[in-house]
Specification:
Layout lengths: L4 E4 L2 E4 L7 E2 L2 E2 L11 H13 L5 E3 L11 H15 L5 E4 L5 H14 L3 E5 L8 H14 L4 E5 L1 H4 L5 H10 L3 E6 L4 H14 L4 E4 L5 H7 L3 E2 L8 H12 L3 H11 L13 H10 L17 H15 L7
Helix pairs in contact: 1-2, 2-3, 3-4, 4-6, 6-7, 9-10, 11-12
């Protein structure tokens, strides 16, 4: 997995084929409320997902609680998960912060520890101009040799990564190879695919929201990074595989099962506690602790979660 990019006098050599594709779950960080990693639980989840035929694993994203972590804990998580996955699937590490300097530091650390790529959300709190965003991402791209996935989540960051900006970045920096587009508007993802892929055919476009996977594939995108794949990977993986083989009837059938799952996230906010309880309901032994200010689900909401999962999934996926 480490031959994607080869440094040549400060430049990057890019393979012809897209580096990342398919279903890459954003992994909840399995830990205890005091911040210690639940190593056994983390291993259980990683093994379950790899055995479920996912195409990669994304650690320290929104569902991985990066925003509640110190930089030290983020480094500790990366240092644990990368060697444990051990090249079985590509590993992406989220390194974005509101500081360009700290983002570069975390990105260099991920590279040194053997990550296959990094995912970088844009700075939040202060809105940046497009010129400011271009300079921010350019500094990161110039300081690491890893493939970089942009992360667009405007409902949380307050700033959208426009298709024009994304194209400009992809043209300027060959190691900016794709984007996770977490937006409600399908038109935004469509414009990314039409505008950026026209100039950079191997630039990969992933949906962020679970129920946009089928739309993204139909428009010419490359896959999804959906939180539901951390507890029900059969659905997203099944949609992607069926679409790739031309079994659109099967893909649509699975899409109809997947589509209601984002309603689970309305049980609480932030909803990484929902994802962890859903993982536990799959029979995977993990700590369901979360980092404050997120709190564990109440007994009532746990019951509601199990009821909703049973309704949405039927007999297709067995719950414990």
């Amino acid at each position: 997995m480490k031959a994607f990019y080869i440094k040549r006098k400060g430049e990057v050599a890019v393979k012809a084929d897209p580096i990342f594709k398919g279903i890459i779950p954003p992994i909840p960080t399995i830990l205890y409320e005091d911040g210690r990693i639940d190593e056994k639980g983390m291993k259980n989840l990683i093994d379950f997902l790899i055995e479920s035929n996912v195409d990669g694993l994304f650690f320290l994203g929104s569902g991985g609680e990066f925003s509640q972590m110190s930089a030290g804990l983020r480094r500790e998580v990366a240092e644990f998960v990368i060697p444990y996955v051990n090249g079985r699937v590509p590993v992406l590490i989220g390194t974005g912060t509101s500081s360009t300097m700290e983002t570069i530091s975390l990105s260099v650390h991920a590279q040194e520890k053997g990550a296959d790529g990094i995912v970088v959300i844009n700075p939040y709190y202060w809105p940046l101009t497009e010129e400011g965003l271009f300079e921010h991402y350019s500094e990161i791209a110039q300081n690491v040799d890893l493939p970089i996935m942009l992360y667009n989540f405007p409902s949380l960051t307050g700033t959208d990564l426009s298709p024009d900006l994304v194209l400009k970045l992809a043209q300027a920096h060959p190691n900016i190879v794709g984007i996770k587009d977490t937006v409600d508007a399908v038109g935004h993802t469509r414009e990314l695919i039409l505008k950026v892929k026209k100039e950079k055919p191997n630039f990969v476009v992933f949906s962020g929201y679970d129920d946009h996977l089928f739309n993204t594939l139909a428009l010419g995108g490359d896959g999804s990074i959906p939180l539901s794949a951390s507890f029900a990977p059969e659905l997203s993986v099944g949609i992607y595989r069926a679409f790739q083989t031309g079994d659109y009837e099967k893909a649509i059938e699975l899409h109809r099962q997947l589509a209601p799952l984002p309603l689970l996230y309305k049980l609480d906010s932030p909803f990484m506690n929902v994802a962890k309880e859903a993982i536990r309901l799959r029979g995977i032994e993990i700590s369901t602790d979360v980092l404050a200010p997120t709190r564990k689900l109440s007994k009532e909401k746990k019951k509601e979660l199990k009821s909703l999962l049973t309704t949405f999934l039927g007999d297709s996926i067995v719950l414990s």
